Amino acid sequence: MQLFASGKRNHLVRDYQSAADCLSESCALLSKHYGETAIECGEPLLIYGKSLLELARLESGVIEDGLKGGIAACPTDSQFLSVHPSILSKTR
Question: Are 44 and 4 in contact (CB under 8 A)?
Fold first, then answer.
């Protein structure tokens, strides 16, 4: 339980690497004792998965790079049509 508590705390303070390490070991011990599909493994596995997801997001940078332009970078329909008026004649 000490490993699970440490992992949960680390996840809450956004130290995802430490959380993943503690929760990995905690999940292994709990599944060995109770079985992989036991209800006691549910919360540790959930938080472990969330920690791994956050680690992947931080390490890849894909999500941040995609959001740099934001929604404002995408043209609206009226902006697109004002730049390309030939589209109006093709659709009619």
Answer: yes
Tokens found for residue 39: 């209800």
Whole-angstrom distance, CA of residue 24 vs CA of residue 81: 53
pTM (two decimals): 0.65
- Alpha-carbon distance of 24 to 10, in angstroms, equals 13
Q: Which amino acid is at 75?
A: P
What three-state secondary structure class fits 92? coil
Per-residue pLDDT of the chain (92 residues; tens, 9 = 90+): 899 999 999 999 999 999 999 999 999 999 999 999 999 999 999 999 999 999 999 988 765 555 555 545 555 555 545 555 555 555 55
